[in-house]
Write a structure and sequence with these properties.
Blueprint lengths: L19 H22 L8 H4 L1 E9 L10 H16 L7 E5 L3 E7 L4 H9 L4 E11 L37 H13 L33 H12 L5 H6 L10 E6 L5 E6 L4 E2 L3 E9 L4 E8 L1 H14 L9 E5 L2 E4 L10 E5 L4 H13 L5 E10 L2 H29 L2 H27 L5 H30 L4 H33 L3 H31 L3 H4 L9 H4 L5 H20 L1
Parallel strand pairs: 5-11
Antiparallel strand pairs: 1-3, 1-13, 2-3, 4-6, 4-7, 4-10, 5-6, 8-9, 9-12, 10-11
Helix pairs in contact: 1-11, 1-14, 5-6, 10-11, 10-12, 11-12, 11-14, 12-13, 12-14, 13-14
Amino acid sequence: MAAPKKGRRPAGGPGGQSRPGRALALILIAMVALTGGMFWSGHTTPRLGIDLAGGTSITLKAKAEPGQEDAVNETNMNTAVGIIERRVNGLGVSEAEVQTQGRENIIVNIPRGVNEKQAREQVGTTAQLYFRPVLTYAPSEQPAPSASSSTSPKPSASGASADKGKDEPTATPSSSASTQGRAVSEALKAPTPTPTGSATPKGSETPKGSETPKPSGTPSADPAASALEQKFAALNCLDPKQRAAAGQGVKASDSTVACGKNAVGQWEKYLLGPAAVDGQDVDDAKGEFDQTRGMWIVNMEFTSAGAKKFSQITSQLSQQQAPQNQFAIVLDGEVVSAPSVRTTLSANAEISGSFNQQSAQDLGNILSYGALPLTFDTQSVDTVTAALGGEQLEAGLIAGAIGLALVVLYLVIYYRGLSLIALLSLGASALLTYVIMALLGPAIGFALNLPAVCGAIVAIGITADSFIVYFERIRDEVREGRTLRPAVERAWPRARRTILVSDFVSFLAAAVLFVVTVGKVQGFAFTLGLTTLLDVVVVFLFTKPLMTLLARTKFFGEGHAWSGLDPKRLGAKPPLRRSRRVTASAAGPVDSPKEA
């Protein structure tokens, strides 16, 4: 092994010099890249919360369904608040506020910059999702269609073989309302596929409801079926009011009617059996672009229990004749898709229709977070101004500027030349914080509110504390009689441990605060945690390398009086090696008289 060259210490030794240029180059490249990304994205300022920028306030009123008057209670209201908050708040840092007001109202405050229409859809959509077997359906454009009419082709369910235009279901035709009622009656009498199998033996014959019925005015003997016959015959899906009322207040275990658009955009009315699978059985959903078909779809993954139900119902439907081999995907009372089933499916399904990217992703978001336990009406949508928040922000910024000025004044008086390193490090930390906050706005919906500003101001003290710890360790080494360059390297391991422990405690406190709190306090916790992590990055990749480089200069290395590292000012001991020699030379003359 070759010995190191004379006059040079091994780089890894206690007094060895690190390579500061690499660390400084790394953080400078990161700062330039992040700043460039900020300007490239077009978002050069952080998105502000509702208290600083104003926004929209939406008031929702809970509405009890017929026979479920007791559903409007504290438990369901709190559940609804949690679901709405997850929908509009995403990762919890977009600063949307959701809270109850009184017994039956929920207030949703959304900061400016969020699409108001999209937000209203997110908070107002109940998202009650059901998979119901189709008993029969008819085009709503013709209340009494002719025997030759047929509906447009229906899509096949995900995973099933789909030959579009072949073997497609045909609507139950009739020449009058009475024959249409007869078809409904026979469809209701036919076995309805259910996941429990209570009413459907596998391999049952083709239901008569799917055949062309013969005219007859005989009503159904079952009063419930008779009422459903009349409701289906009278339903006009071209009327928005009738579409909205269809299927409202119906239990999942009951048959119902609903409206939906077919593949060519025409309204159709459906007679549907009891729900076989519901939204609670959906584990995850997301909007995706289907490259094969060139369209946006919503893919759903079921829970283990939901996959079992879905497999059982599709197994039964695959043995039926059209249209009773279809299941309708019903969202908030409207049929969004009614695919036919030809094979047994499980684990996942898809919803296809006239989706664009935004609507597919929004629906996936709603289904992922779950259905609201109550139905809500939008009572009011108001614009909130930022006048009060602007005044508070101005006062907060003045307080922060005063605090920062006091910190700078203290650093200059006490640390003199070292204050230059501290100020440059504070500047680097401030730049990184600003740029990252600006980028997090469009990325995860982060919005800067007053508590978040407070977190950023508190971070000034945390960052300055890290510098002070390191500077004091260097001064301790200088006081021990060491020159500056080895003092900088020997002080770093001790200062590093202290800085990491301090920042870990701050980050842990911020993480706990973020998890256990809601609303604006989360903004404070998020900002505090972010700036704590940046403090570690700046101290390791900027402050320490910069200190190493400046220790090599004459001003700092020779301990200038204004460097903050003057050995005389610090009360440094004489160099250790020289003090030993003086002691040894003085010992001889003292002992010689005793020998004599």
